[in-house]
Amino acid sequence: MHSKKQTPVKYYVGIDVGSASVRAALVDEFGTVVAHADQTIQIWEPQPDHYEQSSADIWAACCLVTKKVVCGVDASRIRGVGFDATCSLVVVDKQFQPLAVNCEGQNYRNVIMWMDHRAVSQVERINATQHRVLSYVGGVMSVEMQPPKLLWIKENLQKSCWEKAGYFFDLPDFLSWKATGVTARSLCTVVCKWTYTSDGGWDDSFWKVIGLEDLVKDKYEKIGNHVLSPGESVGKGLTPEAAKDLGLPEGIAVAASLIDAHAGGLGVIGADVKGHNLPCENQPITSRVAMICGTSSCHMGVSETPIFVPGVWGPYFSAMVPGLWLNEGGQSATGKLIDHVVRGHVAFPELQSKAAASAHSIYTYLNSHLDLIKKSLPVGFLTVDLHVWPDFHGNRSPLTDLTLKGMVVGLTLSRGLDELALIYLATIQAIALGTRHILETMQAAGHHINTLFLCGGLSKNPLFVQMHADITGKPVVLSKEVESVLVGAAILGACASGDFASIQEAMAKMGKIGRVVQPNHEHKRFYDKKYEVFLKLVEHQREYRSIMNS
Asked: Which positions fall inside the Carbohydrate kinase FGGY C-terminal domain (predicted)?
C-alpha cells in the first residue's frame, strides 16, 4: 500500500484587541488554536467616565503577541491575518500621527474607548432629532457609539483636535490600515457604530442635523468612503513595514476586520451541532444567539429579514454573517461588574489569601465556598433574600438608559467571606436575569431563539454558565476552543486568503462545540420569581427618581 502524501496544514493568525489586553492566536484550518499569547495595554482615566488608550501602545502589543505565536512556524504555511477590536475611536492627523482626545494635549492618548461616557449631552441631542437612522440602533443611539464622541471632540477640542484631524477610525479599521496602508473601513464597524447603511451608505441629512456637516464636505474621507465586507481581502496584504513589525512575510492576506464581539459570534454561532440533542439542530442559524461575555457582554442574534427590536441595536445587514441581519443586545458591565463587587468587598483580602493558599483563582475558590455553605439547597437558592440590579454603568439593552444605577437589596451587617460569596452569586444571577430580559425583548419582536452559544472570559466560569442556562431556561453551548473571539478573527484571515469560499463555510469547519450545559427545569419556579423581583427593582428605581425630581 502506498501512503498518500499529506498536505501541509494551513494556519491563520487571529489578533484580538480587548479592553485591557491584546491577544493573538495561531489557528489551523480546522479551528484548533495551536499557539496563544497576550499582552496588557494601558488605560487612562483622567476623570470619571473618560477612558483613553494609545494606538501606538495597542499596535506595539499586537506586534509582540503575533511574533510570539508565529515563532518557529514555517511562514509559508501562514495564509492570512484577521483583526478584531473593541469599537473604540482612534484619531490621527493628516499624516496619520496620533492626536490628543483630551484637554491635556497628550497626543499619545489618541483613543476614546468604547466604554467612555463623556458624550452624554451630545447623545441626548442626537436622540432628540429622532432621525430615521436611529431606527437601526433600537430607536436610541448609545453614548458608546461614534457620532456623539465625534460631536464631543468638535465641541470641546475644536482647535487642538477637530480641525487637525485627518482620519477618525474605529479601532478594528485602524488595525487593518496599520497592516496594509489602506484606509478602507469594515462594513461591520461603520454599520454598527457610525450609522452607515449597507444599502444607502452615509445619510448626509443625519450628519448635518447633528452639527457634523464638516464630514459631508470632503465626501466622508475622514470617516470612510471605501467600505469592505468582513473577511474581504484588504489591499495587497501586509506592507513591508507591517510585516517586519509583526514577524510575518510581506503580502500575506489581511482581512477587513470585525468588532471583537462580532468576531466571537463568528467563532461560535455557525458550529456544527449534530449529535448533541440540541433544539437548534436541523434548525436555521437564526434559532441561535451568540453571547460574548468579557468586560461587557453582547448578545448576537441573526435573522433572514430585518427585525426592529426596541432597545436592541440593529438590524444591521451583513455586519457579522454575510446575507443575514444582525441584532445586538448588550450589557455595558459584566466581567467588570463582578470584579468591582468582589474586589470592593471588605472580605476580599481574606478571599485573596485563602485562594492563593489553595492554588485556585478567586472565582474558583468562591464557587467552592458556595458549595460549602449551600447545605441541602441548590446553590442558586441561597439568594432568596438578596437581589441585585446590575446596571452600575447604565443600561445598554433593552432599556437604553445610561442614567440607571446599580442596586442591591437585602444587605446585612455581616462582613465575612460567606457574605462576599453571596453577593458574588447574586451579581452573576443579576447578569443572567439581564440576559433573559434582552432575549425576551428580542423574541417579542420576532426572533425565535432556543439555544445560547457562549464564549469569552466569563464562559470559563461554570457558575456563570449554569446560571445563564437555569435563568433563561435554554441550553448553553460552549465552544471547544475557549478563545472563540480569536478563532473568529482567524476565520476572517482564512476567508481573505481565499482558502474558503465563504465565511459560512469557514464558520462550519473552524467553529467546534465543546460542552453543552442544560438548564435545570426543576429550578424554573424559583428563577421566575427572581425575574419578577428583578423587574420590580428597576420600577422602584424609576419611581424614587421621579419622587426626588418632582
From this structure: 290-496
| Integer Cα distance of 504 and 120 in angstroms | 38
Residue pair 175/183 in contact (Cβ under 8 Å)? The answer is no
Residue 53: phi, psi to the nearest 5?
-140, 180
Q: What are phi and psi of 427, to 5 degrees?
A: -70, -45
**Torsion angles phi and psi, residue 425, rounded to 5:** -60, -45
Query: Residue 259 in contact with residue 316, Cβ under 8 Å?
Result: no
pTM of the model: 0.90
- Its CATH class, for the domain covering 11-256, is alpha beta
d(CA 440, CA 430): 15
CA dihedral 188, 446, 280, 459 (to 10 degrees): 50
Query: Domain 279-474+520-549 falls in which CATH fold?
Result: Nucleotidyltransferase; domain 5 (3.30.420)
**Closest to 11 in 3D by CA, of 490, 492, 481, 506:** 490
Contact 14/37 with Cβ under 8 angstroms?
A: no
Count Cβ atoms within 10 A of the Cβ of residue 171 and give its class: 0-12 exposed, 13-18 middle, 19 or more buried. Answer: buried
Distances in whole angstroms, Cα of residue 152 to Cα of each of 117, 204, 269, 303 = 11, 19, 36, 34
* CATH topology agreement for domains 11-256 and 279-474+520-549: yes
Cβ proximity of 424 and 342 under 8 Å: yes
Q: Which residue has the cell 424554573?
A: 524
Q: Give the residue extent of every domain in the chain.
A: 11-256, 279-474+520-549
CA angle 533, 539, 545 (to 5 degrees): 135
**Beta-strand relationship, 111-112 and 227-228:** unpaired
Residue 350, burial from CB neighbour count under 10 angstroms (0-12, 13-18, 19+): middle
- The three-state secondary structure class of 511 is coil
Q: Three cell numbers at 218?
A: 470632503
Are 22 and 83 in contact, with CB atoms under 8 Å apart?
no
Nearest to 175 by CA among 246, 123, 262: 246
Amino acid in the structure at residue 321: V
DSSP state of 113: -
pLDDT greater than 70 at residue 2? no
Give me the residue label for grid cell 445560547.
Answer: 452
For residue 480, is pLDDT > 90?
Answer: no
Q: Mind giving me the DSSP string for 177-217? A: HHHHS---EEHHHHHHHS--BTTTB--HHHHHHTT-THHHH
Q: 175-228, pLDDT tens digit by residue?
A: 999 999 999 999 999 999 999 987 889 999 999 999 999 999 889 999 999 999
DSSP letter for 403, please.
T
